[in-house]
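Dear colleague,

Following up on yesterday's call, I've attached the two folding results inline so they're easy to grep. Please treat them as preliminary; we haven't cross-checked anything against experimental data yet. The first protein's sequence and structure tokens come first.
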Amino acid sequence: MLVHEHIRETIEKFYVCTHIPIRSVDFNGIPIHSAGYSGAMDELFERQHVFEQAKKELTAVHTRFVTITAPEHIHFTACQICGKNINRGFHIIGPYASQPKAARDSLVYKPAYCIPYLLELLRTIAADSAYFKQKLKTYYEQPYSLYVKKAIDYMDARYHEPMTLEDTAHYLKISKSYLCNLFKKETGKTFSQFLNELRIEKSKKMLAEEDLPVLDIALAVGFNNQNYYNLIFKKLMRRTPLEFRKNSLQRNDAV
């Protein structure tokens, strides 16, 4: 099923980004997919009745997520796969350690204040995965060379991370100067220009749909400070991020 393929892609990417085990189950507890799980983690999941607790609490209380506590500062965090339809099932992040002393090779330390950000990352990955191929379709239909297509793919998958032309050239196993010239020749833009435009496009969706501070959005899409983000946003959009958000809210209210 396409929905299950979307879920599989989402949690695989989440695990690659965070190294925190994650599994998805349907509303009846039937596994859809998991990433990073070991036999011992499966046993802990079953022993602590994580699915049953998650379903009970998420069904009874209108909340974004619930955290299930196991012994020795070990936790799981669960949220709905689809915010508008609980019957789609649940993503369950963990196990993870809430105290440094509980962390070990297979158990990542994540304090409680990190959890909302991890859930936001999961939501962002899910949104990207849902239209990932469609989003890049325009690029791939262009007469770009294989290296430029792969560079764009790499940028779209990792735009939220620190990234340079040199990093991308290393990933493609070609020289920095060759990629620089090829990218500019085929796209008409420098690597930095293209990356900035991609990050701004990603941030526009968050500005319109999320009630997050502009700084958090800037950091989430890969900018390392708000001033530079504001500068690039205004240069490309002819308005500030806050003005863009205000206009988006006004359009939504008018619908």
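Below is the second protein, in the same order (sequence, then structure):
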Amino acid sequence: MEDETVGGDSLLRKLKPKLIDILTADPDLVLQHTDSIGLLTRREYADVKSIPKPSDEVRDLLDYVIQKGSSTSLRFLSLLQEKEMQETFPRLGSLKWNGDGELYQNEKNIEKCGVKRQQPMTVEELPSKLLCTNSIVTEKDLMLVASKIGRHWKQFGRVALGISTVQLDQVVADNPCNLVEQIFAMLRIWSMRERSKATAKHLHCLLSEGDWALPPDDIKFLLEGS
């Protein structure tokens, strides 16, 4: 049987029962870190924070992240490998995903990036195994993308790229009355922060899902020559 393609949301869904058990020890810490990298809207943050039962708080937080798709789920899994999270929740280091279970249709974007199911992975290994790899995105690529992203550009920046509201406000202030330059500046912030992970294929994945998803023909240039 051929290897099946794995998406971040599917992986997070499979890890969900164990993560609820582990993260219930300090759900507020998880919520604050998740919010700090822009994975939740203000309403979602308030909804989760208002839940009195710790296990339910973690459950709803994970559900919100999973609903946002593969790239957001991968960013959450990457968050779990940060030093503070590992020290607070030492059991995270022992988590493994065994690859059993069905896949979902909304994982087609990950499939385009050539990510295949591998041997059982620890949480620490997930991001490097699943993030799309390719040549580093160029400024020309960023400008072409900037010219195609429409009214959802700030939502894309916050949710998919992890750009803070403060940074977005500064981008607008630095490039008044020029939407394309504003979006280009936002994309440069992302590429400079991600460095070697800011690849053309990774950006293509991010632009292929969510409310901001672009038509395939508009971004196929990101996959050409890879």
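For the second protein, one point worth flagging: The two ends are 27 Å apart (CA to CA).

Best wishes,
A.L.
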